[in-house]
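Bug #77: duplicate submission created two jobs. Keeping one. Sequence:
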Amino acid sequence: MSNRGLPKHKVHKRAVKHGRKLSLWRLSAYVGASLGALVLAGAVLILVFGGAILNRYGKEKAERAFAEAHPGYALRIGELDYAVGANCLVAQSVTLSATNTTLKVGRISLTGVHWARFLWGTAALADVLAKASLEATNLDVEFAQAHYGIRCERLRASVPGSELIAEGTELRTLAGDEDFFATRYYRTVRFHVVVPECKVLGLAYGELFQGKSYRARSVHFSGPSFEALVNRDKPPKPFVKSPLMVHEALAAIRQPLQVDSLASPTATSNTARGWPLEPTPPC
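Kept job's structure:
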C-alpha cells in the first residue's frame, strides 16, 4: 500500500506498527530457532553421550536414591545402555544385597516404559509401566541363613500381554549335600526342586503394582521335579514346630490371592530318601 497523500504522523504510525510486527516475527523466529537448536543439541547429546550420562549420573543417582529409600539394602547396577528409537533400557548386571539375602541378575532389558511420567513423578507406577516388557537372564537369589538358593535362567514379563514366564528355575542348596548336612546337628530335610518352565497368564499387573491383590487366570508348570533327602543318621530335633499346612501358608498372605486354573501335567517326585544315600535294593 502506498503512503502518498497521507499526513506525516499517519505515515510514521504505520511504519512503527510495521516495525513492531517485523520485530515480533523476528523474535518468534529466533525463539523457535533457539528451541529447535536446543532440542537438536539434546538429541545429539543423548545419541552420542547417552551411555556416559546414564552410567556416570543416572546410575549413581538411582543407587543412592534406593539406599535412602531402603536402609540396609545395597543396589549395584552394571553398565547401562539406552536405545531412543526402541525405548529400550539395558543393564548388563544388577545386584541387590541385604543382610542374609543377595540377588544377582545378568542382562536385563526393559522396554515400553513412560520415562517422562516416571521422571516427573506425575503418574502412578501402573500407568508408567502400562506398556512395559521385561526380559532378564541368569537370576540367582541366595539365602545365606537358610543355605538355599534359587536360580532362573530366563524371566520374561509383559504388562500388555498380562503374562509372566520363568524358564529353568531351580531351588537348591548353596553347597553340596555333604556340606549341607554337616552343618546340621539334628535331623533335617534337604529339598531340591526343578521347574523347567512356569507360565503365568492373565496376570493382573495393575492390581499387583497397586498392592491390592495377586490375581491370574492360569498358572502352568511344565515337567517339574521334587526331591527330599533326610539325614537319618542324626537325632530328631526336640520341640520342633510343625510346618505350616498349605491353607495356613496361603492365609498368611495379606493380599487376596486368586488363580483360576493351576496345572502341572507331568511331575516327578522322590521323597523321604536317606542320607547317606541308601543303596538301591536289588530287583
